[in-house]
TrEMBL record:
Any one GO MF annotation of this record: 2-oxopent-4-enoate hydratase activity
Organism, scientific name: Aminivibrio pyruvatiphilus
Residues in the signal sequence: 1-24
Domain Fumarylacetoacetase-like C-terminal, first and last residues per copy: 113-267
Top-level division of the source organism's lineage: Bacteria
Record-linked Pfam families: FAA_hydrolase
Entry keyword annotation includes Transmembrane: no
This protein's GO CC annotations: cytoplasm
Keywords, ordered alphabetically: Lyase, Signal
InterPro entries named among the record's database cross-references: Fumarylacetoacetase-like_C, Fumarylacetoacetase_C_sf, Hydratase-Decarb/MhpD_sf
Protein name per its UniProtKB record: 2-keto-4-pentenoate hydratase
Length: 282
């Protein structure tokens, strides 16, 4: 069955590439994204070369880039991006996007204060989020939220650390962001809270402070209106893109409140009943 699914996914990918008319250019574009990531340079604005790049085409580039970057490894989890009306409007999109979280990018916010070095990023951004930690693998699309809840073991406060560095920020479009795996770089996960003891995450009012002053306030429902529906969309979208999920994988559902520049200082992310994360940006 797994082999059949892989064969089907590969066949669909071939059809997609043929329909695009650029064929092998997918790999060439993915190589540009990969080279930028590996060399610590800004991501290319691919739509400057291909102004009509579609959502499907941007996912094709994203998948090729992600698989090349992963090599023999597998994702640490998956993330949703552009999950608010404001961010979709900002980058000219009518849909959110989904991508992988790369291994090596995860930081343990449950063990104590975390240090983030801006020198490791081209353009460090901060997003206050909620993390879902899987207790079981997910190999196929899930029918509904109840099915997803059966797969989730823990919830946690989370901070995503995307690297929103592109060669031309003024021309940047949603397809460019998606092709770069939504600028996936790092993330901090707080102390896991068992699902049975977790609060109503849509009603959370998480607050981020910098050097004691509040800099962001959000609400759990900021992510497309409902955390669980967004997590379900994320899972099913990535399954459709040919990925599978394992026990321990982290799901991030998008920014609560605003995406902020990673300024130096001491931060506290208070996610209410999900606990807090202390981190410093240097």
């Amino acid at each position: 069955m797994k082999a059949a699914r892989r064969t089907c996914a590969a066949f669909l990918a071939v059809l997609l590439l043929a329909a695009m008319g650029w064929g092998a250019d997918i790999q060439a574009l993915a190589e540009k994204v990969y080279s930028a990531a590996m060399e610590g340079k800004p991501f290319p604005v691919l739509t400057a070369e291909y102004p009509g790049m579609t959502v499907d085409e941007s996912y094709a580039v994203q998948t090729a880039y992600s698989k090349k970057r992963l090599g023999a490894d597998r994702p640490a989890g998956f993330k949703a991006g552009l999950t608010t009306e404001a961010t979709m409007k900002r980058f000219g999109s009518d849909t959110p996007f989904a991508a992988v979280l790369f291994p090596g990018g995860g930081l343990d916010g449950a063990a104590g204060p975390v240090e983030v070095n801006r020198a490791d990023f081209g353009n460090l951004m901060l997003e206050c989020e909620i993390g879902f930690i899987l207790g079981e693998p997910v190999k196929e699309s899930l029918k509904d939220v109840d099915a997803l809840k059966g797969k989730v073991a823990f919830l946690a406060a989370a901070i995503e650390l995307p690297d929103l560095a592109f060669t031309d920020m003024k021309q940047l479009k949603a397809a460019d962001i998606n092709a770069s795996a939504i600028s996936s770089k790092g993330f901090i996960v707080g102390k896991p809270v068992p699902l049975g003891a977790a609060p109503d995450i849509n009603e959370l009012v998480p607050v981020l402070s910098l050097d004691g002053a509040e800099v962001n306030r959000g609400r759990g429902s900021d992510a497309l209106g409902d955390q669980w529906e967004t997590a379900l969309w994320l899972v099913n979208t990535m399954i459709e893109q040919g990925w599978t999920m394992e026990k321990g994988d982290v799901l991030l559902t998008g920014a609560l409140g605003n995406m902020l520049p990673g300024k130096p200082g001491s931060y506290v992310y208070n996610a209410g009943a999900l606990g807090a994360i202390d981190f410093t940006v240097k």
